[in-house]
TrEMBL record:
Gene3D superfamilies: HUPs (3.40.50.620). CDD domains: USP-like. This is Universal stress protein. InterPro entries: Rossmann-like_a/b/a_fold, UspA. Residues 1-137 form the UspA domain. Pfam families: Usp.
Length: 137
């Protein structure tokens, strides 16, 4: 049913991703799907990484750790954005298209007041991506 599963990752909040990663791993085992962790770093230094290359290295390390812990192979794909606050959703949709993704599994927080005004990243992807989106709280 699914052949390519993408999991967006925020390296600032990896502690909140365990459930979504477990769901994606289980689905990949069930369907024999490839798993792609996609992270969006910035072109400018941040608290996560000073350079896009360092961000890609940290994302690859995160993917390797989760691969070992969950018994599956997560491939890391680092994307770079000049301003993720503005274009994160577009970068994720573009990455999903480039990876020929047929399912996005992503972690989400419990909605708050801000989501009444503006869609969350998960809400935006669920509304605008042409592939299925599985939002895990």
């Amino acid at each position: 049913m699914y052949s390519n599963i993408m999991i967006p990752a925020d390296l600032k909040h990896t502690d909140r991703m365990d459930k979504a990663l477990s769901v994606a791993a289980d689905l990949a085992k069930l369907y024999g799907a490839a798993l792609h962790i996609v992270g969006v770093g910035q072109s400018q230094p941040t608290e996560v990484a000073r350079t896009p290359a360092q961000y890609a290295q940290k994302l690859a390390g995160f993917a390797a750790d989760k691969s070992k812990a969950l018994g599956v192979d997560f491939a890391a794909h680092a994307e770079t954005s000049h301003d993720p606050a503005v274009d994160l959703d577009a970068v994720l949709v573009r990455a999903a298209d480039n990876l020929d993704t047929d399912l996005i599994v992503m972690a989400s927080h419990v909605p708050g007041a801000a989501e009444y005004i503006m869609a969350s990243n998960a809400g935006h992807l669920a509304s605008h991506a042409h592939m299925s989106v599985f939002v895990v709280r």
